[in-house]
# Entry
Amino acid sequence: MVDVLILNGPNLNMLGLREPEIYGTETLNDIKARCTKKAQALAMTVEFKQSNHEGELVEWIQKALNQVKGIIINAAAYTHTSVAIHDALKLHNIPIIEVHLSDPMEREDFRHISYIEPLAHSVIKGHGAKGYSEALETLKTLI
Ligand code: DQA
# Structure
């Protein structure tokens, strides 16, 4: 059992190679290491996962029921499309922080809708990889 589940959606496994001018140069492994270090400093434990598959993310969210105290999610493109992830997150009665490396509101119109936001305690966007550390700090105050 861990305190915080950190979930990452499709194409985030390609960070480092993927549009570095938008997403920065840190790889997902770098972000994982950053989160592990930050969690240790905050005396918290984290599980860090990524999937390109909507159903797998849904199953991980379901399995976390009553197992974690908070969720950080960068659902990537599924943010803007997935009622299934919205519904799965709705099962939880724990703080959820939505994170985006970029600020989707400053990009294409199709990124302006978030199905996560109505369920999120807060949204951290446009702060790059640092946003994950900030999300952990926020959760520390909530759980
Ligand atoms: C993203 C923003 C999404 O619009 C995009 O589909 C991503 C990454 C971000 O972290 O900035 O894959 O979630």
